């Protein structure tokens, strides 16, 4: 099987049920989700290297769910009966965040992204996830698609933040507080 089809050479690509320009809002949104999936794969490798196996397993599950997000955004016409992302995916992210948060030190101020290599990678995931969320909001302003994808991405960025802090805590590396931050978390 050849991987190249030459069908995109004119600046269009296929989605489920049609073709659109490669800069269509659907392509921008799920393309950014694909980018996030790649960064998440990098974080999986770093989690395994640092012995944080339970986090690595969660991240692999998230990678599958990110494919589901992309699929749900790739319909030319809404197909609610085919959507894969549901409120249950948001629920399990919240459970994981609550478990990870137990080992995190109290948070009062904004923190700088970084610390351990795993935490730094998770902060990159968080910021790319926020961009994917913004693009999904823009998409859903004009094109109907699964609203649970937007909710999932919103919660997922929070998950990456909590996971980054847990990675630092587990590595014994304190988060670095933003110097000019007031106490914003209570």
TrEMBL record:
InterPro entries recorded: CblAdoTrfase-like (IPR016030), CblAdoTrfase-like_sf (IPR036451), PduO-typ (IPR029499)
Enzymatic reactions: 2 cob(II)alamin + reduced [electron-transfer flavoprotein] + 2 ATP = 2 adenosylcob(III)alamin + 2 triphosphate + oxidized [electron-transfer flavoprotein] + 3 H(+); 2 cob(II)yrinate a,c diamide + reduced [electron-transfer flavoprotein] + 2 ATP = 2 adenosylcob(III)yrinate a,c-diamide + 2 triphosphate + oxidized [electron-transfer flavoprotein] + 3 H(+)
EC annotation from Swiss-Prot or TrEMBL: 2.5.1.17
Organism the protein comes from: Paenibacillus ihbetae
Entry GO MF terms: ATP binding; corrinoid adenosyltransferase activity
Subunit structure: Homotrimer.
Keywords: ATP-binding, Cobalamin biosynthesis, Nucleotide-binding, Transferase
Protein name: Corrinoid adenosyltransferase
């Amino acid at each position: 099987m050849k991987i190249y089809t030459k069908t995109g050479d004119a600046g269009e690509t296929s989605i489920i049920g049609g073709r659109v320009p490669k800069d269509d809002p659907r392509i921008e949104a799920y393309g950014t989700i694909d980018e996030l999936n790649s960064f998440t794969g990098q974080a999986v490798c770093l989690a395994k290297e640092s012995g944080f196996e339970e986090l690595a397993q969660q991240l692999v599950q998230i990678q599958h769910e990110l494919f589901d997000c992309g699929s749900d955004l790739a319909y030319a016409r809404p197909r609610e009966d085919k959507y894969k992302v549901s409120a249950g995916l948001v629920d399990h992210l919240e459970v994981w965040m609550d478990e990870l948060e137990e080992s995190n030190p109290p948070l009062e101020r904004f923190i700088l992204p970084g610390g351990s290599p795993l935490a730094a990678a998770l902060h990159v995931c968080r910021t790319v996830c926020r961009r994917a969320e913004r693009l999904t909001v823009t998409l859903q302003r004009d094109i109907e698609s699964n609203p649970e994808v937007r909710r999932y991405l919103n919660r997922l960025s929070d998950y990456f933040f909590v996971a980054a802090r847990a990675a630092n805590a587990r590595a014994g590396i304190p988060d670095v507080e933003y110097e000019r931050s007031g106490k914003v978390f209570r």
